[in-house]
Specification:
single chain; about 575 residues; alpha/beta; ABC transporter transmembrane region fold; Rossmann fold; 3 domains; 6-stranded mixed beta sheet; 4-stranded antiparallel beta sheet; 20 helices; binds adenosine-5'-triphosphate; ABC transporter ATP-binding protein
Amino acid sequence: MLLIARGVLPAVFAIAMGWLVGAVQHRAALAAPLSLMGITFVLLQVLTPVHQAVSANLGNRVSAYLNDALAKACVGPPGIGHLEDPGLSEDLTVAREFDRGQTGPPMYLNVDFVAGSLVELVGGLASAIVLFGFTWWAPLVLVAGWVSTHWLLRESGVWKDRNTAEVRSAQRHATYAYELAVEPGAAKELRLFGLADWTVQRFTERRRRLFELQYAATRLRERPMIWSLLIIAVANGLVFWALGAAAIGGSLPLDRLVVFAQVSIGVGMIAFGGLNWALDGAAAPVAAVRRLQPAMAPAGALPVRTSAVDAAAVGAVRVELRGVRFGYPHADRQVFEGLDLTIPAGSSLAVVGQNGAGKTTLAKLLCRLYDPDAGTIRVDGADLRDLDVDAWRTRVTAVFQDFLKLELPLRDNVAPAGAPEEDIRAALADAGAADLADLDTRLATGYGDGTDLSGGQWQRVALARALCAVRQGAGLVLLDEPTAQLDVRGEAAIFDRILTATRDVTTILISHRFSTVRHADRICVLEHGRVVELGSHDELIALGGRYRTMFDLQAQRFAAEVDEEGMSYDTL
Ligand SMILES: Nc1ncnc2c1ncn2[C@@H]1O[C@H](COP(=O)(O)OP(=O)(O)OP(=O)(O)O)[C@@H](O)[C@H]1O
């Protein structure tokens, strides 16, 4: 309504002006035409800022809708393949970054442009309708002339090529360099390794490339420009010639001439303005989100079998992997090529192997973040794919290497889904973090009551989260380098407590530290996607194979340590 009202006002103003001229000519009363002119003028002034506010609001709502839709598309799938899929990452960048204003106006401005341009379109059409009062062909000629500019100049649209791979890739790199520059996480090493200038240069280069692409797309191409000018000149020449001829011939009185001359100019509002460009700018993130939604769902999907088994069991879990084959999507290398492994319920298994051997991938498969390409993973005899994913995930818990640091109070970091306070405190104590902070202290700086933790302290919190989940019923615990950031003293002390706390559940410990590994009931050595050795520490040492070699290598570098207080640590 607002849009149409604003659009027709210029035509109404032209009519009022003609009425006023006629009234002056015929010495009639001026009050009515003057009032109409006044009201129209005031409305024109008032409606513009109102309209801008409404369209900015609409733009913000569109942004919020897109952000919501993207968040749901990312979080919705039960697996995580869609977030690690290189084929989706460029769309993800466009969809995520659209409102930062780096690659085009933010959504609220785009929507304002679109709304403003639609007002002009309505205004031009309203003028054309009034012009029918002069003659039938004049508005048709003018509208055709001005509409042709949309078609002819469309080719020069700012972001006509916005969705090309080159634009998206330049955009992604520019964003990456920008984040490196502004995020605190990268600040230390950027400075230490002298990368600050490189980052700025990289950002500037990518931005320049984006501007070049933008300019190339914007550049008015000569031929369509000349055609546009010609068509518009001919159309306006014809109409104004006809208006002049009619006025001179006496068939068009002055008041009508004033109206028709004004609306003839007004039809020009239809011309190619910011509409196409703004529509492109507003449409690109919408298109990216709409492409992502259907693409992400299958990439992160975990097929549900019809014969779903209830996973609401309790106690330690028995895990069996048979002939498991797995490769990450789009990767040319298989991580597992027929992995066989059995982990009895209530036992602890340490997994060792070189970097990239697949230890973390094994943990991801057991959490069912991915399904194997072939083979089966059975828990307590049931195929993991037959279990309800959410129910299974209440039975498995993990500390990953890149564990989550929630900007929430310590209490919520330990029990994100809630747990009795005594369990939270006990879990913190088991992780050696009993005195870390008050449970209600927010673990983030930048808040009045917040505090940040050291790397090792954060690791204890992540450990406490897993141990708290054990108290809530998890039967399988995956610990991926759970003590990597702890000091030797802390590690030795905590490890015993972890073993006690996880005594009744099945534990899989991934570690390069043989001082912790040796405590596990059994140790498995992963190599080239297979188990090459399996047994207790003593058995594998006696075997004299891969484990023995790795153990001896580390043993040469670590002797029993005695600190300044005379305490000795069994580092190996
Ligand atoms: N998201 C991913 N997409 C593609 N390939 C991946 C992905 N994550 C891991 N890989 C590859 O899978 C292989 C196994 O990785 P994984 O992280 O399981 O090794 P790891 O044994 O845990 O290594 P580390 O000891 O360094 O932690 C590696 O070759 C790695 O490059």
